[in-house]
Design goal:
61% of the residues lie in helices and 0% in strands. Helix 6 runs parallel beside helix 7 and helix 10 crosses helix 13. It is mainly α and 281 residues long. The protein is built from 13 helices and no strands.
Length: 281
C-alpha cells in the first residue's frame, strides 16, 4: 500500500481539541437550544424548511432592531458616523431577508397546503419583532399591538416603541438642533401616530440636498435612510410575490386578505419627504 497518498489530518498541533469543561462553539452559541427549536407539527417534509426560514428571518429581524436602536441613539447624541455604520448593516441584513424568500419560493403550492392547515391562526402578521422594526422606522399603528396583548413582554416593547420617537423623528430632531427650520408641530407631535408628509420638512431636506457640501453628514444620513426604505420595500415586494406564488389570493392564516393585505404595505413610506425631494431637485 502506498501511504504517500493517504490524506494527512488537518488538525494542527495548536488546535484546541480537548474542550471538556471549557467553552466550546456550541456552548457559546447555545446550539442545543437553537437547533432544538425546529418542532414540526406534521410529518410533511417541507414544514422543516418553512420553520427554519422563518427562524432565520426572526434572527435577522432581531439584529435589525438592535442596529436601528443603535442608530437612533447615535443620532440623539449628534454623533452620526456610528449611525451610518448601523444603517449600512441594516441594508446588508435586508439583502439576506430578501434572499430568504427565494428559498421559500422553492416550495410549491401543494407542498405548503400539505401542512398549512396545521398552522391554525399562526401567521407572520403576528411577528412582534417585525412590528417592532416597523414602529422604530415610523409605521405607527396602535391596532397592530392588539395581537400581542396576551404576551406581556412583547406588548410592553411594542407599546414603548409606539409612543416613542421613530428613527425618522430622531433624524428630524437633529435637523432642528443644527438650526434648520423644522416645523414645531412636527417635532412636538404625538409619536404614537403615523408620520404625515409635511411640505416644510420637504423643503428642509431640499436645502440639504442643494447644499450638500455644507451639510454633508445630514446629506449622508438622508441617503442612508433612503437605502433602508428602498431595501425594506424590496423585501415587502418579494414577500407579497412569494405568497402570491404559493397560495394565490387565498386569505392569510392570520385572517388577513393575504396578498391584498401585503400590497397595501407597498403604498406606505417611512420617510416620505426623502422620496418627494427627488422631484423638486
Amino acid at each position: 500500500m502506498d501511504n504517500s497518498k493517504t490524506p494527512k489530518s488537518r488538525v494542527e498541533p495548536g488546535m484546541h481539541v480537548d474542550l471538556a469543561g471549557r467553552r466550546s462553539y456550541a456552548d457559546y452559541l447555545k446550539l442545543d437550544l437553537l437547533l432544538a427549536a425546529q418542532q414540526p407539527v406534521t410529518r410533511e417534509h417541507d414544514e422543516v424548511a418553512f420553520i427554519i426560514i422563518h427562524h432565520v428571518q426572526e434572527l435577522w429581524l432581531k439584529l435589525i432592531a438592535h442596529e436601528v436602536e443603535a442608530a437612533m441613539a447615535a443620532i440623539r447624541a449628534d454623533h452620526l458616523p456610528p449611525a451610518f455604520k448601523s444603517l449600512a448593516r441594516v441594508t446588508r441584513i435586508q439583502e439576506q431577508l430578501i434572499a430568504a424568500w427565494d428559498v421559500l419560493s422553492t416550495m410549491t403550492p401543494a407542498d405548503y397546503l400539505a401542512f398549512r392547515g396545521a398552522l391554525g391562526p399562526a401567521s407572520g402578521f403576528q411577528s412582534y419583532q417585525y412590528r417592532l422594526v416597523e414602529f422604530r422606522l415610523g409605521a405607527k399603528d396602535a391596532g397592530m399591538v392588539l395581537p400581542h396583548r396576551h404576551d406581556a413582554a412583547a406588548n410592553a416593547k411594542l407599546q414603548a416603541a409606539l409612543n416613542e420617537p421613530s428613527l425618522y423623528d430622531e433624524a428630524l430632531r437633529i435637523l432642528a438642533r443644527r438650526g434648520l427650520p423644522v416645523p414645531k408641530e412636527v417635532l412636538d407631535r404625538d409619536f404614537s401616530q403615523a408620520y404625515v408628509s409635511n411640505p416644510k420638512v420637504r423643503d428642509v431636506w431640499l436645502s440639504i440636498y442643494r447644499h450638500a457640501p455644507e451639510h454633508f453628514d445630514l446629506y449622508e444620513l438622508a441617503e442612508e435612510l433612503v437605502d433602508v426604505e428602498d431595501w425594506f420595500q424590496q423585501w415587502r415586494f418579494r414577500h407579497m410575490k412569494t405568497v402570491e406564488r404559493i397560495i394565490g389570493y387565498k386569505p392569510g392564516t392570520g385572517g388577513s386578505s393575504g396578498v391584498g393585505y401585503l400590497k397595501t404595505a407597498l403604498e406606505h413610506s417611512f420617510f416620505p419627504e426623502l422620496w418627494e425631494v427627488r422631484t423638486y431637485l
